Amino acid sequence: MNLKRPGILAAIAAATLALAACGSDNTSNAPSDSGSAAKPTIDCKTGSLTAQGSTAQGNAMDEWIKAYGQACSGASINYKGTGSGAGIQAFTANTADFAGSDSALKAGDEQTKADARCTGGKAINLPMVIGPIAVAYNLDGVKNLQLKPATLAKIFAGTVKTWDDAAIKADNPSASLPSTPITAVHRSDSSGTTENFTKYLKATAPTDWTTDASKDWKAAGGQGAAKSDGVAAAVKQTAGAIGYVEYSFVQVNSLNAAKIQNGAGEYVALDDKSAAKAVAGAQVGGTGDDLSLKIDYATKEAGAYPIVLVTYEIVCSKGTPADKLPLLKSFLGFVASKDGQAKLSQFGYAPLPDTLQTKVTASINNMA
Amino acid sequence: MSQQSLTTTPAGAQGAGGGGALPRGSRLGAEKLFRGLATAAGSTVLVIIVAIAAFLIVQAVPALRADSENFFTFQSWFANDDPPKFGIAAIAFGTVLTSALALIMAVPVALGIALCLTHYAHRRVASTLGFFIDLLAAVPSVVFGLWGRDYFRGPVGDFSKFLHDHFGWIPLFGGGGPYGNSILLGSIVLAIMVLPIVTSLSREVFAQTPAQNEEAALALGATKWEMIRTAVLPYGKPGIIASVMLGLGRALGETIALALTLGAVYNVSFDLLGTGGNTIAANIALKFAEANPTGRSALIASGLVLFAITLVVNMTARAIVYRRREFVGGAA
C-alpha cells in the first residue's frame, strides 16, 4: 500500500508541473510523465495474459504492466500477487500463463507436474526481479550498525539478547551500544523472504544457525508479525527491534538498515548496486534455457551485499498456447530489457546484472 | 349494513364455518408451492452444512495421512516440509483461549451497555449511543487489526509491563518483556469486535421484558437494580446466552484481526503478556498463500477442527437455551 506513495507524489509533481506550464506560453507537449517520456522500444503485441504468484515481485509487475500498457495498446496483462505456492499451482493447472515465484521449481514432483503442462517442452525458471533483503533495526543513537553473519544468526536465534552483547560490540568497535533488550521480529506468514533469509543464515553461520531453512520461521523465540508490512511496523514501533524485510519497506518506512559483512570481510550497506553484485557472482544451476540460480551467500565479490532474494518467472520453454505466446514473449522481453529493469530501482529492487540479463533475454527468445 | 353484506357472501363460503373462504383449486396450488419453497430454503442450510463438511473431510484426508506427527498433540505447523509435520494442539488451544478471554472482557461491558440503553439512559441519548454501537459492528475486521497493530500495541505493551511488575506472581502475567503481539493484545481487540454483537442482541431482549413484570417488581418495593435483577435479567437469560454464543461464533472464526495482532507462536501456554498466541483461522490466513498441496490440505484439516469446535459450541448453546425454555415461558 505504502509503496504507491512515490507514484502519488510523482502524479502530484506532474500535476504541479503541468499547472506551472499552463502559465507560460507553451508550445511543446507537456512532459507530464517524465518516467515514460523516453518510450522504450517495445515490440508490441496484442492479446491477454493472466499470471499470478509471488507478492515480493508484485510492485515490479504492476510497474511493468503499467509501462507496457502505456507503450502498447490492445494488450491486457493481469498479475495477481497470490503467493508463490498459489502461482505455481495455477501455472501447473494451466490457469496462469506464467507464474511468479520466490524460488525456482523444486526438482521432483513440483517440476514434473509443471512440465506436464508444457507440451513438447518443460517449465523453466527465469530470474527477473532481484529483491535485496534488508536487516532493519530500531536503536536510538546507533546509525551505522554493522553485523557479521554469525552475529546476525545469534540475534535471530535468541542467543544474543541485548544490544550491548560482546558479539555486537566486536562488530561495532566505535559505536556506543545501549543495554536495550533485542526484539527479533520475523514473518509469521509463510514467505520466500523467510526462506531466503534463513538460507543465508544457514549457509554463512551454520554453527550459530541450526534450524532448517524454510518458508516458515522455525527458530524458537522472537516475535512474529504478519507480512513485510507487519515486520516493518513492529520494528518501527519497538525500541530495540530488528527484523528482515524487502528493501522497499526500509525506504518507505525510513528505517535504518544494518551493514552486513560479506565473504570478503567488508561491511556493505544495502543499495541496488551492492545487491546486484551478489547476483552477478551467482552460478546458473539450471540447464539449457532454465536459469535457476545458486546464490553464493558468502560471496567474495567486492562491494557485494550478500542477502538477496531472486524471484523468478516460471514459463514454458515450449508449449505456450499460440494465442498467448507472442504477447508473453514481447512482455517478458520488455521486462528483461535494460529499460524494463531500470524501472525497478525506485521500488527497492535491484536490476539484473548484465551477464544474466543477456542470458534471460536469450531464453525468452528461445521460447516457442 | 355490514351484516347484510356479510350474509350475502357467495354460497360456496358458507360451509367453511369461520368466515375464511376455503381456498379454491388455484390457491391451493399456490399454498403448496409456497410450502415447497419454504421447505427448500430451510433444507438448503442443511445441504450447505453437509457439503462443507464433506469438502473439508475429503480435502483434509491426504494431509492427515501424510502427517508424520500426531495431529492432535503436536504443537508446530510445518506442513510444507518433507515429511510434513503439523498438529492442531497449539492453534486450537489459542483459538479457544483468545475467544474465551475476549468474551470474559466483552460480555459484562456489553450487558452493562445494553441495560444502560434500555433502562437508564434518556431515550434520545440511548438511540444515539445505540447507533454508535451498531456502527462499531460495521467496521471491517482488518481495520480493527491494523488499529490494534499500529496504535494499540504500545498502550497494551505498557499495560502488560504494569501487570507483570505488580501481578507477575500470577502465572497468567508471568511473561517478561519485550511486549508486542501477545494474546492480551489479540483478545482485547477481539473483545472490542464482539462487543457490538452482544450489545445489540441483549438490548433487544431487555427491551422486550414485559412491563407487568417490571412494574410488579417495583410495586413490591424493589429498587431499580433489584427490579433488573429479579425481572429483566431472568427474562432475558436465554437471549443473553444466544447473544454470547453469536459473539463467540464471531470470535472463533475471526481471522485477519488476529493474524495482525497475535504473535503467531505455536505453543500451548497461558502466558498472556509475552509474544504468543495463534488461532486456527489466523494460521490459515497466514500460511495459505505459500502452501504446497500438502500444506493446503493440512490447513483445510485445521479448518475441519474449527468447524467441529464451532458445531460443539453451538449445540451446547442450543441445549442450554432449550433447558431454560420453560422457566421463562417461551421467551426463547
TrEMBL record, chain A:
<dbReference type="InterPro" id="IPR024370">
    <property type="entry name" value="PBP_domain"/>
</dbReference>
<keyword id="KW-0813">Transport</keyword>
<keyword id="KW-0592">Phosphate transport</keyword>
<keyword id="KW-0732">Signal</keyword>
<dbReference type="InterPro" id="IPR050962">
    <property type="entry name" value="Phosphate-bind_PstS"/>
</dbReference>
<feature type="binding site">
    <location>
        <position position="84"/>
    </location>
    <ligand>
        <name>phosphate</name>
    </ligand>
</feature>
<feature type="domain" description="PBP">
    <location>
        <begin position="45"/>
        <end position="338"/>
    </location>
</feature>
<feature type="signal peptide">
    <location>
        <begin position="1"/>
        <end position="20"/>
    </location>
</feature>
<dbReference type="GO" id="GO:0035435">
    <property type="term" value="P:phosphate ion transmembrane transport"/>
</dbReference>
<dbReference type="GO" id="GO:0043190">
    <property type="term" value="C:ATP-binding cassette (ABC) transporter complex"/>
</dbReference>
<feature type="binding site">
    <location>
        <begin position="191"/>
        <end position="193"/>
    </location>
    <ligand>
        <name>phosphate</name>
    </ligand>
</feature>
<dbReference type="GO" id="GO:0042301">
    <property type="term" value="F:phosphate ion binding"/>
</dbReference>
<protein>
    <recommendedName>
        <fullName>Phosphate-binding protein</fullName>
    </recommendedName>
</protein>
<feature type="binding site">
    <location>
        <begin position="54"/>
        <end position="56"/>
    </location>
    <ligand>
        <name>phosphate</name>
    </ligand>
</feature>
<dbReference type="InterPro" id="IPR005673">
    <property type="entry name" value="ABC_phos-bd_PstS"/>
</dbReference>
<feature type="binding site">
    <location>
        <position position="102"/>
    </location>
    <ligand>
        <name>phosphate</name>
    </ligand>
</feature>
<dbReference type="Pfam" id="PF12849">
    <property type="entry name" value="PBP_like_2"/>
</dbReference>
<comment type="similarity">
    <text>Belongs to the PstS family.</text>
</comment>
TrEMBL record, chain B:
<keyword id="KW-1003">Cell membrane</keyword>
<dbReference type="InterPro" id="IPR000515">
    <property type="entry name" value="MetI-like"/>
</dbReference>
<dbReference type="InterPro" id="IPR011864">
    <property type="entry name" value="Phosphate_PstC"/>
</dbReference>
<feature type="transmembrane region" description="Helical">
    <location>
        <begin position="33"/>
        <end position="58"/>
    </location>
</feature>
<feature type="region of interest" description="Disordered">
    <location>
        <begin position="1"/>
        <end position="22"/>
    </location>
</feature>
<feature type="transmembrane region" description="Helical">
    <location>
        <begin position="298"/>
        <end position="317"/>
    </location>
</feature>
<feature type="transmembrane region" description="Helical">
    <location>
        <begin position="179"/>
        <end position="198"/>
    </location>
</feature>
<keyword id="KW-1133">Transmembrane helix</keyword>
<keyword id="KW-0592">Phosphate transport</keyword>
<feature type="transmembrane region" description="Helical">
    <location>
        <begin position="129"/>
        <end position="147"/>
    </location>
</feature>
<protein>
    <recommendedName>
        <fullName>Phosphate transport system permease protein</fullName>
    </recommendedName>
</protein>
<dbReference type="GO" id="GO:0005886">
    <property type="term" value="C:plasma membrane"/>
</dbReference>
<dbReference type="InterPro" id="IPR051124">
    <property type="entry name" value="Phosphate_Transport_Permease"/>
</dbReference>
<keyword id="KW-0472">Membrane</keyword>
<dbReference type="Pfam" id="PF00528">
    <property type="entry name" value="BPD_transp_1"/>
</dbReference>
<keyword id="KW-0812">Transmembrane</keyword>
<feature type="domain" description="ABC transmembrane type-1">
    <location>
        <begin position="92"/>
        <end position="317"/>
    </location>
</feature>
<feature type="transmembrane region" description="Helical">
    <location>
        <begin position="239"/>
        <end position="266"/>
    </location>
</feature>
<comment type="function">
    <text>Part of the binding-protein-dependent transport system for phosphate; probably responsible for the translocation of the substrate across the membrane.</text>
</comment>
<keyword id="KW-0813">Transport</keyword>
<comment type="similarity">
    <text>Belongs to the binding-protein-dependent transport system permease family. CysTW subfamily.</text>
</comment>
<dbReference type="GO" id="GO:0006817">
    <property type="term" value="P:phosphate ion transport"/>
</dbReference>
